[in-house]
User: Fold this.
Amino acid sequence: MKAKPILTLAAVAVWLLAMLTAFLWFQQSYIRPFSDSNSHLDALQWHAPQALRGAGPIRVVHFWQPGCPCNVANQAHLNELRVKYREQPVQFFHVKHPSESGQLPGPLSDVLALEANAAFRPPVSPAVGIWDSQGRLAYFGPYSEGMVCNAANSFIEPLLDRLLTGERIQSSNTLAVGCFCRW
Assistant:
């Protein structure tokens, strides 16, 4: 056998091994259940900032970390939600992990910021909280289940549509498995 095919075969084998190692590392580091309990729901409701309390529009809160690789698809989905519900009484906020610096991408730069505190924070991110028009926590959990989030696999649009009809909802989805960073 000539040296060139052997070198090519060796390079392909090294590349495949590197890709497998990277995939396994990513899966071990970021693919996990959203949470193992609902204990944080009461804290989110009782320690919510004033902007989320009382009567008003439906409020959607995006919890995120700038350094988390799981944010990219969720931020695109958040932008899609803003476009879809632009003419509806839905207001969007974001809560950034307090120990990280960074900004939401350009299309989301006008989303209102809220501050995280010891009680008003998710177990992992990205996460979403939805407060109904009466200021009650209607949903807390992931945007979707799986590696990426989009309108096709989202939990959010059906909930927002139901809330817009005036239906009262109290839901969480802490058992979903997907791409999440520990908060």
In short: The chain has two domains: 1-30, 34-182.
